[in-house]
User: Fold these one by one.
Assistant:
Number 1:
Amino acid sequence: MVTMFLHAKARRSARTADTYGRELARFCEFAARPLDQVGLGDIQGYLEWRRLGGARKPASQGQIVAILQSFFRFAHRLGYLHVNPA
């Protein structure tokens, strides 16, 4: 699912796909569970973890939220997820 999402983003901008890919890799490592088992608490925990790890600026936090929302909306629209946790 992540690969499909990044492929769709790469058609617009390789730099965007790279940024999204790094953030989603961090999130998947943090969540350590299949995407269809991720919940809002996982996303909130990740945002806090990233904030404590240096992504403190509102713009950085906003970018992370936008990436996660975009990814989960994509997965939900394709039917991979029954519920969009973001």
Note: Helices lie at 2-10, 14-31, 40-52, 58-77.
Number 2:
Amino acid sequence: MHHFDSKPLPYTCTQLFAQVADIERYPAFHEMTIDWHFKSLPENHCEVSVEITLLLQPGLLTYPLEKRLGQSSSQLLRLFENRARSLYSRA
């Protein structure tokens, strides 16, 4: 099972990469991979993408879990954006 989300953010790719690299602050995930991608945009902005893959056996729960995974990746991107805002926004 696989889901992908992307969003442009008003922070540099260097800042956002540092945020992702701080893995000690993230909970442990089992049988799931989360890949982050960064694309530089004009005006020191960055498009950040999150790609989540969850290893599941086919069965009755596959469709509901796939739908939930899409919601989870969107929520993860929103949480990431909120954290970036608290770290990098100028007062």
Note: The chain has a mean pLDDT of 81.
